[in-house]
């Protein structure tokens, strides 16, 4: 079962910070990142959210409850100088059940020279294919509980 997890992030741009954006998640203690512009800051925020939540989940901790958007409070620190800020939703996905309960046989096409070289090297075709697909999808396995998270 795929589960979208959505948290609020506050993006700030301070006048004296060369146009960079800082990002923090009010619901996740010590979760802060940034970027040179909004797209980079958003990518970094998504990566940070995925990493922090996965770590919490894999450690057996309960995930923090997200604050509803209409309850967000942000007061810039006057010592940091004037800033512009906005709130955005940042999402990640969990595949919380055991994805590997069912195993299916698949056929794939491979160049003969690659097949021969892989067989000589005693490579495990199934494992390599599965790892490649997981990597392409951004799936990170939790070895302990056999759950996975998909990084967005």
UniProtKB/TrEMBL annotation:
Signal sequence, renumbered to the chain: none
InterPro entries, sorted: HicB-like, TTHA1013/TTHA0281-like
Domain HicB-like antitoxin of toxin-antitoxin system: 15-114
Name of the protein described by the UniProt record: HicB-like antitoxin of toxin-antitoxin system domain-containing protein
Phylogenetic placement of the source organism: Bacteria, Bacillati, Bacillota, Bacilli, Bacillales
